Amino acid sequence: MENRKIRTIGVLTSGGDAPGMNAAIRAVVRTGSYYGLKVVGIKRGYNGLINGEMEEMSPRSVSETLQRGGTCLMTARCLEFREPAGVARAVNIAKVFGLDGLVVIGGDGSFRGARDLSNSGLPTVAMPGTIDNDISCSEYTVGYDTCLNTVKDAVDKIRDTASSHERCSVIEVMGRAAGYIALEAGIACGAEIILIPEKEFDFDDDILRPIFEAKSRGKKHAIIIVAEGIGGTLEMAKEIEAKTGIETRATILGHVQRGGTPTVRDRVIASQMGAKCVDLLLEGKMNRIVCMRDGRITDVDINEGLEMTKTIPEDLIELAHKLSV
Ligand code: ADP
Hints:
- By secondary structure, the protein is of the alpha/beta class.
- The protein contains eleven helices and eleven strands.
- It has helices at residues 21-34, 46-51, 84-96, 108-119, 144-164, 180-188, 203-216, 233-244, 264-283, 302-307, 314-323, and strands at 8-13, 38-42, 54-57, 101-106, 124-128, 168-173, 193-195, 222-227, 248-252, 288-293, 296-301.
- Helix 5 crosses helix 6 and helix 6 (180-188) packs parallel to helix 11.
- The longest helix is centred in the middle third of the chain and has 21 residues, at 144-164.
- The mean pLDDT is 96.
- Adenosine-5'-diphosphate is lined by residues 14-16, 46, 77-78, 81-82, 106-110, 112-113, 116, 130.
């Protein structure tokens, strides 16, 4: 299958939605069309592949999508696809619909599915679309910048009320098991304390003491950004209030972080990565992950990419600590 000429490609979005997925779909459809390919949109992630829910897309079917959050192809989680029988069914349906290649836009879980499809003979290229920035082989994931800006807007607003009431605010942000959103949003918003799963913390030394120190230095509020991977945000706020005597409120930002019009950065990177996926399929470079490395859009083998590990930048942790005085 690897050497056969590519005439028809499919595109799907899978896992959690992220702003910029539409920009990526648009880039796949229009780049494909530019090169004379037939591009088929697959609905609801791997569910649509298994159930044959797909339709041909044209450059016009992605008009007016660039500025919209979410994904016009819809997204879903698909349990059946995690079983070998589900993957085999998907490969078979892809054959029935004449797909010579597939572009998967999603996160880490979706990449594992893409790897299974690749290994089962369907040439597949994946690109990172997730707000979490938690893809090991890529410095950047589409949706991250929009999410950070949403968090920034929310925290700036919470800060106004926290300062006026001289409160402590504990704000939980998304990121699954990763702390990138918390760390960068924390720096952007001047959080006094940032708690991420990658770094152990001690309640007395890393939460209570900095709050008392901030107060004695004349700070009117304390903003604590907590990554969702830490958990227990509501209880933490109660414990802080009980132990400091400072009124403390918890806010869980939740799904507001997933929505909204994508930022310029997300639109441009999604466009570059989507186009690169099509280029790779046309070059016969299958089974790849399109990613950002050293600031450039490039690609890695899907199996190798999934084995890589990503570390949280220690210099940013250090910076956040220095600037919180
Ligand atoms: P994300 O892609 O955002 O990480 P999920 O982890 O929910 O989201 O994965 C999306 C879909 O990818 C799942 O519903 C499933 O169909 C498929 N998937 C997830 N993990 C695996 C896996 N280990 N092997 C095969 N397919 C997987």
